Structures are given as C-alpha cells and as structure tokens.
C-alpha cells in the first residue's frame, strides 16, 4: 500500500489521474492538495473513496512538509500549475509564482522529509510538464525528444521550463528521486471549458462562434487524458530515477482539422440522438445546419507556436507505453462524457457568468 500526494488533483489532468489511480491501485490512498483556483473543482473528485482533499497552496512549504510527514507520503505526483497560455500573456506573475516558486516549495519539503531527516524512506517525486518547453517546430523538423534543447516562447512555457530545471537540479544535487514527463496537448473529461476542445464543443451546442487563431494550421499532438495517466503510471512504477520521458498521443493534427472533427462529431451525435435538438435548440445541428458554419477566423495569438510534435520512442521502448486511442475515438468518448455530464459544465459556465 502506498500513500500518494497529488498536487492540483482537483484540476483537469490531476483529477483524471486520481480516478485512474484509484481504479487501478485500489489499495493505495490519495491525498489531493489543491488551492481550488478557477480551474480546480471538488466535484471532479465525486464518487471516489480513500481520497482526501486538502485545500491549500503548494507555496505553503510548512503545509506540504506536514502532509508528507503526518501521512507518510511516499510518492508526490505534481500536476498543480497555471497552464493557460492566453492567461500567461496577460498575467504572467501567477505563472511564475505557482509554476516556479510552488514547485520549489514542494521540492524543499520533499528534501526535508525524505532526505534531511535521514529516514532513508523510498520515495518518488514525479513532475508533470509540457512539450511547450521545447519551443516551436517547423513543418519538416523532427519531433521533440528528451534531448531537444529548451526554447520556451510564452510566459507559461518559460515558467514550466524553470520548474523542470529545478526538479532536475534537486535530483542531481541532493539525490532526490525524481522523474519528469513532458506531455502533448491533453483533452478529455473534466477539462475546464477555456481550452480549445471543450470550448468549441460547448460553443457548437450553444450556436456560438468558433474563433480560430490565424489560418488554423498550427499543429499539435493530441493526447487523451486517460492515455496520459497510463503513461504517468508507467513512469512512476518503472521509470528510471532522474530521467525525463515524453508522453504523446501520436495524433499530430492542425487545429483546423481538430475543429472540423469536433463539428462533424457533434453533427453526427444530433442525427443519432434526436433528443439533443430539444436539449440544445441553439445548436446549428438542431436547426438542420452544420456546426462548421460557426467557424470564425480571428487575429492570431501573440507568440503562437506553429507546431508541436512528440517523439515518444524512449517511453515506448523502455516502459512499453503506447496511446490507446486515435483522436476520432478519443473525441467521440469526450463528447459522450460532456453530453452525459451537463450539470458539471453548466455549473462552471454559471459560475463564470456570475463572476463576469
């Protein structure tokens, strides 16, 4: 039996990981540490047993130290981060605070409890990062590998790069047993509706514009969040200490292709389930139109990276990881989840509307 501390575990990827871990490792207990900012939602953890939500800030080193000590935590899985690129452009301070100072706070606590106390306790500090730390690729450049030089282009990716370097330094300097994963673009259940896929999915249902940056040909590697959790599990259980592993979905697609897939899948859902027209009367699909009529091209985002792609040779070869879904399959599952959890996302939209 292991005791895990999952930071940011009430957020999108963190909550999916907690659900995944409890399903596949029911003997383990999980403590979630989350400050419940706008993207953290206690409802994401509904229905889980042996999961304790502690509302707190990862920058509170004393709190983290106490949790690690009192709960005999042996594994930290660190998801907590500010992660929305647009928000980092308009307000970078929060990204530096959470992503760099917060990660350092966790590392200091882990070092104090696991190393300085002299307990010799086996431990693992797993840090979840992003492929955006590597910068942008040209159309014919090789995909990002674990040896690709860092070249972050946004305040968000720069702050994540800083946190990656801190984790590496705590392993090489102090001997902290760490691993890091750099993932591609995630999608799936519980994703806050400011990100492309849930935003566009819900806009299709409500007949709202689908704003496409620039020419829509920015390329991303899309990774279903459960496949990501499977990769993290592989790293935690069998990854080499001090190593970094890239986790990708093997689905390198232009944004425009992704948006067209969203539109087509939503339209097909209305055909197969006529009751959706009554639930979402403003959707083009409820009015005999196609969702792609909502596409609207807007001015490109500042510093918008053109292409990301993941070379996952290392994690495939060493740990036997492989994504289990194509994008079409993963998005069909995602759409079904959002249609089946209308109360979850309506509560978020209502809260945002009141805040505005």
UniProtKB/TrEMBL annotation:
Q: Which CDD domains match?
A: dTDP_GD_SDR_e
**Could you tell me what this protein is called?**
dTDP-glucose 4,6-dehydratase
Which Pfam family, any one of them, does this sequence belong to? GDP_Man_Dehyd
Q: What is its EC number?
A: 4.2.1.46
Q: Name the protein family.
A: Belongs to the NAD(P)-dependent epimerase/dehydratase family. dTDP-glucose dehydratase subfamily.
Q: Which GO terms describe its molecular function?
A: dTDP-glucose 4,6-dehydratase activity
Q: Which residues form a coiled coil?
A: none
List the InterPro entries hit by this protein, alphabetically.
Answer: dTDP_Gluc_deHydtase (IPR005888), NAD(P)-bd_dom (IPR016040), NAD(P)-bd_dom_sf (IPR036291), Sc_DH/Rdtase_CS (IPR020904)
What's a single GO BP term from this record?
Answer: nucleotide-sugar metabolic process
Which cofactors does this gene product need? NAD(+)
Record key words, sorted: Lyase, NAD
Q: Which PROSITE patterns match?
A: ADH_SHORT
Is Lyase included in the keywords of this UniProt record?
yes
Per UniProt, residues of the NAD(P)-binding domain are 5-334
Catalytic reaction(s) noted: dTDP-alpha-D-glucose = dTDP-4-dehydro-6-deoxy-alpha-D-glucose + H2O
Do you know which Gene3D superfamilies this protein is assigned to?
Answer: NAD(P)-binding Rossmann-like Domain (3.40.50.720), UDP-galactose 4-epimerase, domain 1 (3.90.25.10)
């Amino acid at each position: 039996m292991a005791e895990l501390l999952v930071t940011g575990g009430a957020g999108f990827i963190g909550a999916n990981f907690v659900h995944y871990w409890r399903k596949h490792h029911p003997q383990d207990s999980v403590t979630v540490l989350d400050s419940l900012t706008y993207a953290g939602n206690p409802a994401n953890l509904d229905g889980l047993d042996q999961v304790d939500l502690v509302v707190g800030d990862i920058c509170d080193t004393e709190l983290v130290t106490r949790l690690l000590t009192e709960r005999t935590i042996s594994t930290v899985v660190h998801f907590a981060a500010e992660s929305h690129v647009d928000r980092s452009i308009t307000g970078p301070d929060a990204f530096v605070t959470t992503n760099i100072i917060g990660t350092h706070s966790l590392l200091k606590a882990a070092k104090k409890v696991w190393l300085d106390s002299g307990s010799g306790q086996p431990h693992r500090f797993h840090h979840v990062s992003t492929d955006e730390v590597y910068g942008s690729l040209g159309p014919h450049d090789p995909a990002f590998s674990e040896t690709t030089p860092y070249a972050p282009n946004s305040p968000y990716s720069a702050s994540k790069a800083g946190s990656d370097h801190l984790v590496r330094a705590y392993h090489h300097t102090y001997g902290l047993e760490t691993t890091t994963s750099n993932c591609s673009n995630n999608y799936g259940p519980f994703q806050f509706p400011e990100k492309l896929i849930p935003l566009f999915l819900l806009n299709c249902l409500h007949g709202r514009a689908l704003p496409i940056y620039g020419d829509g040909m920015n390329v991303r590697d899309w990774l279903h969040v459960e496949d990501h959790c499977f990769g993290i599990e592989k790293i935690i259980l069998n990854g080499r200490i001090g190593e970094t592993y890239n986790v990708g979905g093997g689905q390198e697609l232009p944004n425009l292709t992704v948006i067209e897939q969203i539109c087509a899948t939503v339209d097909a859902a209305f055909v197969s389930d006529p009751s959706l027209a009554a639930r979402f009367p403003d959707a083009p699909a409820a009015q005999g139109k196609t969702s792609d009529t909502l596409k609207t091209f807007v001015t490109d985002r500042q510093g918008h990276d053109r292409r990301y792609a993941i070379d996952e040779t290392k994690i495939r070869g060493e740990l036997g990881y492989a994504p289990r879904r194509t994008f079409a399959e993963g998005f069909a599952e995602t759409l079904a989840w959002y249609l089946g959890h209308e109360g979850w996302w309506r509560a978020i939209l209502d809260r945002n509307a009141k805040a505005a």
